[in-house]
Design a protein that fits this description.
heterodimer, A: 6 helices, about 15% helix, about 55% strand, B: mainly alpha, globular
């Protein structure tokens, strides 16, 4: 692991040494997905003041339907860079963020078994990026890294165990990861363009949950590799009027082939995602329609399709520098195809402040 | 330009070449599938799948028993929910055990009298001789014959199944005998024979519950009734016993009495005396 840690340290040093004094921007994004109903249910159960009938009432909708909630807040500062690396990268970024995930599942109506978790982490992100100028063909790439720390709580057992006072299993959680990204944007004409994106996010997690046997336990020194490649073809309808209308087709390959990446890295660890699960789970196909204009303060994009075997749809609204995004997507919890869906509906609000 | 276009295909090829066989162990997959069927209340499918495959029958006797239990209509948590819900009036039950609060109960805090808990149970307990329930009970006994080597959660579930059997038999006998008393007739010999055989079964099941309770503790009562503060079984520190108010200790005592080992007129007289005693216990005024 020494080369891995060294690489992260090098990215940190590079990104700090290259920051320019002015001309940057700050992005703030908050996201909330579904609810934390299941976790509050489990919390109530583990406090020992529930009866079987209360447990049933709380769990009834959770049998074989994994429940998950997600919340996150990200603040990212981006700035043009100075120094020798300007030839390769045009921006450096620093980010601070926090993620919360909670969820679980109940199985077996006759002798219910409950597996549940919550994870809270804070993280520091930093790196260097290169982006082409708007409406020009060219490569874009990012060399970034992340350091995170937090806590994981697990509940695992039969309803019989939970009827008495029950102590959830807690552990500190640390992770380090890389954010590698390569993209190429092609403008074949004023109407037709394509965008290829490849991102790789290897992450090493560390907890004290060694061999706990709980379904959602992150093990000590657990390595997860998230990858994703995306091809998007966009046709801009020829029109003399604003706003413009564009149609796009998107093909995605990866463990979470949704058009919006909204799951934090801890999700990968909680579900111990495989690098190469069942092929069907890796494929996402969708379309999008966008209404926007260069002199128009509003922009709206709608998308929909089958992502990893589950229908999903979303909308993104831009109002000046503010972006509101909402969507519902199914995410596979197992290594199989359409075996354990976790459906997450989310709302995200973000904005950019130019410095 | 050509290089850019090749990149996605190169990556895709690399991914496809790297695909691993993620198939799990067959038995694990089968267990997941069967458990999912239990969640979906597809109890007939669970039973059919296991019974049609000898290896599955050997591997999942617990799931087969659960399949039969579900098919009989008994789901422990749903049953407990019914016990705590508001009860409807029932002339026969209300004659046998009068004066109980029939409104919905908060299982975490209230402490109704044991006989009122019995009244609620007897309104909902399944027939212990229902073919599916009896099959489930037999399968559990065969799969986990020794309480000491059985996981606690299974001891609790089996304890609940045995408790349902003994309490249901006792309730049916009490209701039948109370009806006979109300009609001011004497039970026929066939009634007596049947009651006696049911009591023998109940006594056996009551002792099985105590064995399971030695390892499952008060959780059996809690899971059965949904009440945290009204155990039907108590651990004295030395022994595990049914509460006297359940009338079950009387049943065990009556059946274990050597004088009652054979069916005769003497036994019949003793049985009627015993039943009078049970009914009197149940009909004792409920303290407010």
């Amino acid at each position: 692991m020494t080369p891995y840690i060294s690489m992260i340290s090098a990215i940190l040093l590079l990104s700090t040494s290259c920051l320019a004094a002015d001309g940057g921007s700050v992005d703030v994004i908050g996201l909330y997905g579904q609810g934390f109903g299941f976790w509050s249910t489990v919390n109530q159960i583990t406090q020992g003041n529930q009866t079987p009938s209360n447990v049933l009432g709380l769990l009834d909708s959770s049998f074989d339907h994994p429940q998950e909630g997600i919340a996150s807040l990200q603040i990212r500062v981006q700035s043009p860079i100075n120094g020798d690396f300007r030839e390769f990268f045009n921006q450096a970024y620093f980010g601070l963020g926090g993620d919360a995930l909670a969820g679980g599942v109940a199985v077996n109506r006759i002798l219910p078994q409950i597996q549940a978790y919550d994870v809270y982490t804070g993280h520091l992100d930093f790196g260097l990026t290169e982006q082409p100028k708007p409406h020009e063909s060219g490569f874009e790439y990012r060399l970034g890294s992340t350091l995170g720390a937090g806590n994981e709580t697990l509940v695992s057992g039969s309803v019989v165990d939970l009827l008495d006072q029950y102590s959830p299993d807690n552990s500190a959680l640390f992770y380090t990861g890389l954010d590698l990204y390569l993209g190429y944007e092609s403008h074949y004409s004023e109407q037709l363009s394509s965008h290829y994106r490849l991102s790789l996010s290897p992450t090493l997690f560390t907890t004290d949950h060694t061999d706990s046997g709980a379904q959602y336990a992150i093990n000590s020194d657990q390595f997860n590799f998230r990858w994703r490649q995306e091809n998007e073809w966009t046709v801009l309808l020829d029109s003399a009027y604003e706003p413009s209308l564009a149609f796009g087709l998107v093909t995605i390959l990866g463990q979470q082939p949704t058009p919006v990446t909204f799951l934090p890295r801890t999700w990968d660890a909680i579900h111990n995602i495989e690098a190469f699960p069942t092929v069907g789970q890796l494929i996402g196909l969708g379309s999008k329609i966008s209404i926007y204009g260069s002199n128009f303060p509003l922009g709206l994009t709608l998308n929909g399709g089958y992502y990893g075997g589950y229908f999903g749809a979303g909308a993104t609204l831009h109002v000046f520098m503010v972006q509101v995004m909402a969507g519902t997507y199914g995410v596979e919890q197992s290594g199989g195809y359409r075996e354990e869906e976790s459906r997450i509906a989310f709302l995200s609000i973000g904005g950019r402040i130019e410095l | 330009l050509s290089f850019k276009r090749i990149i996605p295909f190169l990556v895709l090829a690399a991914i496809l070449c790297g695909c691993e066989d993620s198939s799990k162990n067959n038995q694990d997959e089968q267990q997941v599938r069967l458990t999912k069927m239990l969640d979906e209340r597809r109890y007939d499918d669970v039973i059919h799948l296991i019974e049609s495959d000898p290896s599955a029958s050997a591997a999942f006797p617990d799931l087969l028993a659960m399949g039969y239990l579900g098919k009989s209509g008994f789901e422990p948590l749903a049953f407990a929910e019914n016990i705590l819900a508001a009860q409807t009036a029932d002339p026969a039950l209300d004659h046998l055990i009068a004066g109980c609060d029939l409104s919905a109960l908060d299982g975490a805090s209230v402490q109704p009298q044991v006989r009122c808990v019995l009244r609620r149970l007897w309104a909902h307990l399944p027939d212990p001789d229902d073919v599916n329930f009896a099959k489930a009970r037999d399968l559990f006994r065969a799969a986990y014959p020794t309480a000491a080597s059985t996981p606690v959660q299974y001891n609790v579930l089996i304890g609940v199944v045995e408790s349902v059997s003994v309490l249901s038999r006792l309730g049916r006998i009490a209701l039948q005998y109370d009806a006979i008393n109300v009609s001011q007739t004497l039970p026929s010999q066939s009634d007596v024979d049947r009651i006696f055989s049911q009591l023998k079964l109940a006594a056996d099941e009551a002792l099985r519950v105590l064995t399971r309770a030695s390892y499952g503790g008060s959780k059996i009562s809690g899971l059965l009734t949904g009440l945290k503060k009204v155990p039907l079984i108590q651990n004295t520190g030395i022994t595990v016993e049914w509460l006297q108010a359940t009338e079950i200790p009387l049943v065990i005592q009556f059946i274990n009495d050597p004088n009652n080992g054979v069916e005769s007129d003497v036994v019949k007289a003793a049985l009627l005396q015993f039943l009078d005693q049970v009914i009197a216990g149940l009909q004792a005024p409920v303290a407010v």
